[in-house]
Design goal:
By secondary structure, the protein is α/β, with parallel strands linked by helices. The protein has two domains: 207 residues, Periplasmic binding protein-like II (D-Maltodextrin-Binding Protein, domain 2); 131 residues, D-Maltodextrin-Binding Protein, domain 2 (3-Layer(aba) Sandwich). Helix 4 packs antiparallel against helix 12. It starts with 6 loop residues before the first helix and ends in an 18-residue tail after the last helix.
Length: 382
């Protein structure tokens, strides 16, 4: 459940490239709101306070903040936390990383038991933000720069906004493949790569699942069968393929994030090939309406969406239309093979998602291994 990866690692990759319980007691949705209320929500102004003004207000509020972030390892958000603490040292930030598919049901259970812990959720499970907004669980708020965010990366009323643009594809170690590098996913089934490929389980992570679904739709089930015969080392966590490549354990990693910024000195290359699919999405973030630290939550969203933070994104992509990507890179929404609009639709059809998961389990075997962030229980960060 990838969130924001280690910036140091990702920037070294160049490019060629108790469920439902909370709903029963949820307040009425905006469908019953008056036209005046709906108008105010739709035309709400962006935050006008500066980061320093929000910082002072957050300290008066108590100076605490809890964020649940989707990701693969306990330390995956350490860079984000360190940067935030450097800018706002007196905020007591607790940032908990877990698979998004566990964080979302954890939050649902906390709603149901009136034990809510996080102020902010930052997750890959895009469908949850639509559902929570319908249930009246999200605070409608527009941080500074909201109007500059690409339209598909935000709720018009400010219920949620994406603060990170992420892409999944495959990568390879330049030394491991030599001059005969795989150019596109079709090359991955060449017998010469047998035993040399690592992948995250597609039936364990919905973003990896969507990538594999795009491959199956493009190349057919024969391609999937041939990949299954490649003795692929599958593991949990979308970080695992890249880790295997960077450690020199495998030549190729499938189903992981990377940087599409060209680099001649990189030990690995993240592959984006014209005419061949990869997948991308905007990692959504929202403030929960019941948040105990709503001002600190607003500070966090404004900082994440600030031009300074967006210019330092881990992969060179920004969610803002006014941030120019590094040389050799286009805005993520300008890649037709990125299927940016497809992932939210895919995530919304949970029955179809389950069919894809079980089908890939038939080809690749059941998911094995402990969750890479650990087992965090019901109330981490409390």
């Amino acid at each position: 459940m990838s969130s924001f990866l280690s910036r140091r690692r990702v920037l070294t990759t160049g490019a060629g490239a108790a469920l439902g319980l909370g709903a029963a007691g949820a307040p009425a949705t905006s469908a019953s709101a008056s036209p005046a209320t709906a108008s105010r929500r739709a035309t709400g102004r962006e935050e006008s306070r500066t980061l320093d003004e929000l910082y002072r207000a957050a300290l008066k509020e108590g100076g605490k903040l809890v964020v649940y972030a989707g990701g693969d390892t306990p330390t995956q958000q350490d860079g984000t936390k360190a940067a935030f603490k450097a800018r706002f040292p007196d905020i007591d930030l607790t940032l908990i990383v877990d698979y998004s598919k566990y964080h979302d049901v954890r939050v649902d259970n906390q709603f149901a038991t009136n034990t809510l812990v996080p102020d902010v959720v930052q997750l890959q499970t895009l469908q949850d933000f639509v559902r929570w907004n319908r249930q009246g669980r999200l605070l409608h708020y527009k941080p500074a720069g909201f109007s500059k965010v690409y339209d598909a990366f935000k709720d018009p009323q400010g219920a949620w906004v994406a603060t990170g643009a992420i892409a999944f594809s495959f990568m390879y170690g330049t030394a491991a493949v030599g001059s005969d590098a795989p150019r596109n996913p079709l090359d991955l089934i060449d017998p010469k790569w047998k035993g040399k490929i690592a992948s995250s389980y597609p039936h364990d992570d919905d973003a990896v699942l969507y990538l594999y679904a795009l491959y199956a739709q493009k190349y057919g089930w024969e391609w999937v069968a041939k990949l299954a015969a490649q003795d692929v080392r599958f593991a949990r966590g979308s970080n695992s393929p890249g880790d295997a490549v960077f450690a020199g354990q495998k030549a190729i990693g499938i189903g992981t994030a990377g940087s599409a910024v060209p680099s001649l000195s990189s030990p690995a290359k993240f592959v984006i090939a014209d005419g061949h699919p990869f997948m991308s999405w905007g990692q959504r973030m929202a403030i929960l309406k019941q948040a105990r630290n709503s001002t600190a939550a607003k500070l966090f969203l404004n900082w994440q969406l600030s031009a300074e933070s967006q210019q330092n994104s881990f992969n060179g992509w920004s969610v803002r239309t006014d941030i120019t990507p590094p040389a050799g890179l286009k805005p993520l929404w300008e890649y037709p093979d990125a299927h940016l609009d497809g992932f939210p639709k895919f995530m919304a059809d949970r029955a179809e998602v389950e069919r894809w998961k079980q089908t890939f389990a038939l080809y690749f075997g059941e998911v094995k291994g402990d969750p890479t962030p650990g087992s965090l229980g019901l109330h981490p960060g409390a």
